Amino acid sequence: MSRPVPLRRTLTAVLLSCALLTGATACGDSGDSAGGNAASASAAADPSGASPSASAEKQRLAKTRFVANAGLAAGATYQWIVKPYRAGTFKKGAEGRRLALVKAGLAGGFAYNRLRAAAENAKGDPLLSKAVAPLTAGIESLKGLGTKLRKGEAGEGDVGAFESVIDSIKNAGKDAGAEVKDKVPSTSQLTG
């Protein structure tokens, strides 16, 4: 059994819809129906005709994203892989071993993901791209190490591989004018 909707509720819904529609159209064109935004529309449609300032902005953003992603990878690697390994937390019988291994596994997967993103970001800047290109094989070699860490099967060579790749990325960034500093991600970022 359905009840009729009160007229007041229907009228309110219609008025709100009209107000939203009017507001959305008011924020649109500047009134020039012949294409007031034709220049911006054609620039967006034709990326090859981008202005030199847009190209410089794209390169700057590529470096910024590279630094952010590489910094997160470096911070996660040091905080949850290298530091606990050197402290002996990964050894059998060590206090907090299980939690340290789980965090190391998550950090390994996170670092691998961020390093791949950093390598992709580097493609936006010619100098950075040349510096990072030789390191992609090293990044790919880290692919399964997160799982290996989580299971407690990682050794000194595996931890050293992470350190080596991170150091190489940092050096490549520094040589290209994009200095990378460690930024430790939160545990929620590792799992998210």
Element layout with pairings:
Layout: H1 7-26, H2 38-45, H3 52-87, H4 97-122, H5 126-132, H6 136-140, H7 145-150, H8 156-175, H9 187-191
Provide a descriptive summary of the structure in words.
The protein has nine helices and no strands. Helix 3 packs antiparallel against helix 4 and helix 3 packs antiparallel against helix 8. Helix content is 69%, strand content 0%. The two termini are 46 Å apart. The longest helix is centred in the middle third of the chain and has 36 residues. It is flat. It has 192 residues and is mostly helical.
Oligomer kind: single chain
Q: What is the overall silhouette?
A: flat
Taken as a percent bin, the fraction of beta residues is under 5%
SSE series? HHHHHHHHH
Helicity range = 55-70%
Radius of gyration: 26 Å
Mean pLDDT: 80
What is the structure about, briefly put?
The chain is an all-alpha fold. It has helices at 7-26, 38-45, 52-87, 97-122, 126-132, 136-140, 145-150, 156-175, 187-191.
Pick out its properties:
0% strand; 9 helices; 192 residues; 69% helix
